[in-house]
Amino acid sequence: MTDIAGQLRRARAEYDEGASPHYDEVLAEISARATATSSLGKADIGALVAWKRLQANTPWMAKLMGTPETEVRAITARARAAALDESVPLASAAGIARRILGELPGCGHGPAVASAILTAAAPQKMAVYDRRARAGLSILFDGKIPRRYTYAAYMETVDGLRQQVELAWSNRDVDLALYTLGKASKNP
Fold it and tell me: What pTM was estimated for this model as a whole?
């Protein structure tokens, strides 16, 4: 078996060497606002889309912008509360929060936008799950990850990997390592 913890440590160090120390400033600002208000708004989600480098000229973004801010904040507040719920295991909290975000335009299908929102809402617990993180997992586990891999399953895996690394890492540190591994793969 490969040294998974070692691969993660090296990938995280590689990320730190190559990334701007300012890259996550948007995430940190939105996380602070989410902590202060217990929700995220459309401007926050728009900033996360830019941070994730996603296209904003999609039908879902037009639907999101047509959704009342009060509704967006109510949904994200419920999702944040679910993500932070300490009375359930992390994977369950992640799954519940992800399902709640499914009510928002842009969050009903792939995990990238929803996981970015959840990471901003609960940065010490949640992690971003996108195609590069999935590619990183595939590298670590020799392609042995299910085709349908839920956000809850991803968070359970990420949290387990975090514990294997045996450093004072957050789940976000693990997702950055997975991102770096996946970015280097042939199929990001």
Answer: 0.87
